[in-house]
Structures are given as C-alpha cells and as structure tokens.
Write a structure and sequence with these properties.
44 strands; five-stranded parallel β-sheet; five-stranded antiparallel β-sheet
C-alpha cells in the first residue's frame, strides 16, 4: 500500500499530493531527495501535514531525525510513524539538515531563523515548484486550480487509435488564456513527447488525436498514457473528457469512455470476469514517478479474500496488460473481480476482446470511507420518493440485450438490497423485478430488456423487503449486446437522488454549485460523419417533479460559437434518444466541424445522459455515462 492521502469526499483533494506528483515536480523532487539522502539524518518541519504523503512519494529513502509541528494540539500525535515534536525543539536537533515542507524558502527562513542550530542547512520544497507561468493562481501555490491534472489511456498502433475530446468549459467561469501542458508516456513509462496546446476561445473544442500527435511528432506506435495539466483556468479544477477508441482498417472495434478519476484509490470494483470466448485485460498504468514493487497490487473475486498478487514490478509511468483468464482462471461472467491497487494508479481501464471486436470501459473507485447508513431505509417518501436511483438506457430488446450486474462499491458493503424498475420513453412503468437482498459475492445478472419488453430506460434502486443495508453509493455494470452484429458496449455508474427540493447528505447533487441539483449541463460530441454520436437522455425523478422537462440542445462549432439551438421535452420518468445528425442535420454538423459538440441544458430539472457513438454499417456502437460542467 502506497502510504498517501489523495482524495477525501468530505475535505476534498489533497493538493499537496497533486503538487508533488506532477511529472515536472517529481523530476525536481528526485534531485532534492538525492541531496538530502547524502546529508545524513534530516529533521522535518511539517506545517501543512504533508509529511506522510511526501515520504511515500520520495524516489529514494531519507533518514528522518524527527518531525516537528507548530500546532500545540498536535504535539505527540503520530505522523508517518513519528511522534510530532514542538517546532521550538528544533534548536536541540542533531540533524545536519532541516527540511521545511513548504514551497516558500523566504517564508520558512523568516519563520525558523531563530530555531536553526549553527551549521544546519534549511531546505524547503521551493526547488520542486512549477514555473509561475504554469500556475492559474500565482499567489497561492497550493490552490486547487494550479493542479487541474489528469491522466488518459492513450494508444496508437496498427490496430487502434484514440481521441480525447472536451471543451474549454473554464471560460464560463471567467478563465482567459487557457492552455494545456501535455506529456505522453510510452508503454515502458518513457517520455515520448512533451508539448503545450493553447485553448484561448470560450467554449473552444479540445481534440487530442493519437494519430495526429504521432504524425506531427514522428513518434513510434505506443500504448501508454497522456498526462494533462490545464493552466490559466477558473472555477473548476477537474479535467473532464470523453475518450474514443477506434479500430483501424478491418478492426471494427469502437468504445467511448468517461474521463479517468484523477485521484488514486486503494481499491476498484466492477471489473467483470470473462464470459465464454472473451479475453479480459486490465490495463494497469503506474501514475507515479516511482516504481511499484512486485506483489504490491492484488486481484480477487469480489467478496472473497483469497488475494492473487500481480507479481511484476512496474517502472514509473509504465503500462502493463494483465489478463484475467491467466490470473484468476476459475472465474467467469457474471462473477466480478476486485482490484486492490494500493493507491498506485488512477481509475484504470479494462478491455474485453470477443470475436475480433474489443470494448473498453473503466473501473470505479471503491470507497473506503463509507459505512452502512441505517437512515436510508427510513428516508421520508414525502421528501425523497423512491430515494436513490441509478438510471440507465434500455434500447430496443428485439435488437439489443441489456444486462445489469449490481456491483458493491464500498469496502464495508456486505449486502445489496435492490430492485429494478422499467419505464418506456413516455415515463410509463413497464415492469419491475426484485432479485433479492444480494450478498457482496453475488453473481446475479438481470436481463432488463426481457423485463422491460420495449425501449426506454430502467432504474436500479434500494428495496429492503428482505432486509439488508445501504450506503448511498449504489453501483452497477450495464452491458449492451447487439444480437445482429455481436458488438458489445458497457458502462458503470452510481446512484443519486434526483429532482427533489429537499436534500440528504449532499443529494440531489448539482453539476455546479450546492445541492439540490435541479439543473442540467451535459457535453455531447457532434460528429459530422460516421460513427455518429448520440445521447440517451433520461429524466429520472425520485419523487414528483415537473411533468415534462424544458430541455435545450445547443450545437457549438469547434470554435465554441453556437450555430443552432433546438428544444425537446421529456416526460418525467421518460427518456429520449438524441441524435445530433437527425436534430440539426448533416449540413449544420459539417459547419460545426471536427470537434463540434452539443451542450444539453435544462434549468428546470436534472437529467442524466449516456454518451455514445454508432456506425450502422459495421453494427458497432459505444455507450458510457456523460459528464457535465
């Protein structure tokens, strides 16, 4: 286990972690660590509580002669295996160097000058700082906006290409001069290229195409990862994107996945075991500039503690394919696999190959902080109706199978008391099924298309008729199989309370601002040629809300300019299949150009959408939940 603190849903992200793991900062930290390792024992002054994170991320160990704090209430507390000492006792240290864990040399010299023993050198983290030109908030180094970073699985070879798509959504918060700092790592973790890309226009499309990058910089084929740092931003410190993977030439594979979660986690879930004839590959990508020791990460059947180690070391930023059939040969769909990543990787991707077609999807973070919440069963239906809902599309059952696999998404969760409710496009109920109070190690798959019997959507929700507990983090993997072409797509996501004015523990969530979330802003690509984009747009309602939505679709050119707008109305508990090529027409999409997109806006209710691409000629399609900002 990598002893770091990254993201906490209550306090937010640990910005010091982001500041220390930026590839440029990691290079400089390595140089500084070499100097300190040769200095002998080092006393640490830890004004911001980052000692544990820092020591875990050091590329080489140092001998710590004590950790000091200025907070009198924390003296004696454990930090990274040391009892905190009062900073005034630095005068008595026998260490030959003091390392103040702050990014300002001047501030630390002023604070500690009277406490330094003769001949002791004061070091800080100032040598690790990024250049001022890379900061969005120059006067506060650890401001969250300075470290809007993320990683993307990125591949370009004879079989596949990838394309990252998003837009300059920071401009709507007042950002000027947005730019991206990008570094591409190959499969061995070596730097292939580093470059910058300006995105100055408000709403300007951002398209990073692997084939174009490979040609522009004369790069070899690669399967690695792309580090993204958004600079000059405002309002939003998360780098959100859709990632498209397409097969080349005779390979008809197609996938679109949501962005990676930018914070490493201890465990991930909803990794499916292979079905008959499938090869399931977990792409493990080291997110840090230090190696991952062999045996530090494990896999196990969900709900069982027989751990199988990944017995290979990973170099810094290295990418490794792990075949589930080799590691856990006894497992088969619909059994699920848990990935114990130990904090070394951000949300990883998995790739399934069957019949010459592949599909890519992402794992989700398994929460370590959540405990069962007995109040969820007792939520007042006057306030919250049916409570937490996980909505998902149900395409025409005559053509597609829709398979639902509920997934435990918290380490403490032992039961899943769930029900599936189905609705047609107009919001009328078409069926309901209670699979029971499922155990953590269940392998119960529900054929929702057979239950619904017609196109529309379904919702997974809690049902306590046979007992069980809930934590408000209800997840599932949803698999879609084309009966004609054999193409498959899958997505996974979690539940929310939708469209109630009363709130419970931050629900209903808002795309921007404080709960309750009663408005919508979703991003949808708008392709001017096949594979065309589409959105399955759902109006879920936990209780009673507006009878119909008041939804606007704004077509943006790649420059960010709005070139067309259309309105649609979705009945409560209903859904609509939104196809930009049908709604706006081929001519408007050609005018929007490569990178054109649609913003789905509604100020009356919160909608939930699934983003997809489809190619009718090859019978291929993709589907994953959308993002908003």
């Amino acid at each position: 286990m990598l002893g770091i603190r990254t993201f906490d849903p209550h306090s937010g992200g640990n910005i010091a972690y982001k500041a220390l793991t930026h590839p440029l900062a990691a290079e400089r930290l390595d140089v500084l660590a070499r100097q300190l390792a040769s200095a002998g024992p080092v006393a640490l002054y830890d004004p911001h509580g980052m000692a544990g994170t820092l020591l875990a991320l050091l590329p080489r160990p140092i001998t710590v002669a004590g950790i000091y704090t200025h907070d009198s209430l924390k003296v004696g507390q454990d930090r990274a295996g040391h009892a905190l000492r009062p900073v005034v006792d630095l005068r008595q240290t026998t260490a030959r160097a003091i390392w103040a864990l702050d990014f300002s040399q001047a501030a630390m010299c002023a604070r500690l000058s009277t406490l330094l023993p003769p001949g002791v050198v004061l070091h800080t983290l100032e040598p690790v700082r990024l250049p001022v030109a890379m900061l969005s908030v120059a006067h506060v180094y650890l401001d969250r906006l300075n470290f809007a970073t993320n990683l993307a699985f990125f591949r370009d070879d004879a079989e596949f290409s990838t394309r990252l798509v998003t837009a300059n959504y920071w401009a709507r918060y007042g950002a000027r001069g947005v730019r991206l700092w990008l570094r591409l790592f190959d499969g061995d973790g070596q730097v292939l290229h580093t470059w910058e890309q300006d995105v100055p226009g408000a709403g300007q499309a951002i398209v990073i195409d692997s084939a174009e990058i490979r040609q522009r910089f004369s790069l070899p084929a690669f399967t690695g990862q792309l580090f993204i740092h958004a600079q000059g931003i405002a309002g939003h410190d998360v780098v959100k994107y859709a990632l498209e993977t397409r097969g080349r030439n005779a390979n008809v594979s197609l996938s679109v996945t949501h962005d990676a979660n930018a914070w490493p986690a201890s465990r991930y879930a909803n990794l499916p075991a292979p079905a008959a004839g499938e090869d399931v590959v977990l792409w493990v990508q080291n997110s840090h500039a230090l190696p991952i020791p062999a045996g530090s990460m494990h896999l196990n059947r969900m709900g069982q503690d027989a751990l199988v180690p990944i017995d290979r070391e990973l170099a810094p930023y290295q990418t490794m394919a792990v075949h589930m059939g080799d590691v856990l040969p006894g497992l088969a769909w619909p059994e699920q696999i848990e990935f114990r990543a130990g904090g070394y990787v951000v949300r990883p991707r998995y790739e399934v190959t069957r019949g010459g077609r592949t599909r890519i999807a992402h794992l989700n973070v398994q929460r370590a902080d959540l405990k069962p919440d007995p109040h969820i069963e007792k939520l007042d239906p006057r306030f919250f109706g049916r409570g937490y809902l996980l909505p998902f599309p149900v395409p025409d059952p005559a053509r597609y199978r829709t398979l639902l696999l509920p997934a435990p998404m918290a380490e403490s969760l032992s039961t899943l008391p769930v029900r599936v409710d189905c609705f047609d496009a107009e919001g009328r109920g078409t069926g309901s099924h209670f699979p029971g109070c499922l155990a953590r190690d269940h392998a119960t798959m529900v054929d929702v298309g057979a239950l619904a019997r017609q196109a529309g959507h379904a919702e997974l929700l809690y049902d306590f008729r046979e007992g069980g507990t809930a934590d408000g983090w209800l997840h599932a993997l949803i698999r879609y199989e084309d009966r004609e072409s054999g193409h498959v797509a899958e997505s996974s996501f979690g539940s929310h309370i939708f469209n109630t004015v009363m709130t419970y523990r931050g629900e209903p969530q808002s795309y921007a601002g404080s709960p309750p979330g009663l408005s919508t802003r979703l991003f949808l690509t708008a392709a001017c040629e096949e594979p065309y984009s589409f959105c399955w747009l759902i109006y879920p309602a936990s209780g009673i809300w507006h009878a119909v939505s008041d939804t606007s679709l704004h077509l943006h050119a790649a420059s960010g300019e709005v070139i067309a707008c259309e309105k649609i109305a979705i009945p409560m508990s209903g859904s609509r299949l939104v196809r930009p090529d049908h709604i706006f027409g081929a001519q408007a999409l050609r005018r929007a150009g490569v990178g054109g997109y649609v913003i789905i806006r509604d100020t009356t209710c919160r909608l939930f959408g699934y983003h997809g691409r489809h190619d009718d000629g090859a019978g291929r399609f993709s589907l994953d939940h959308m993002f908003g900002f």
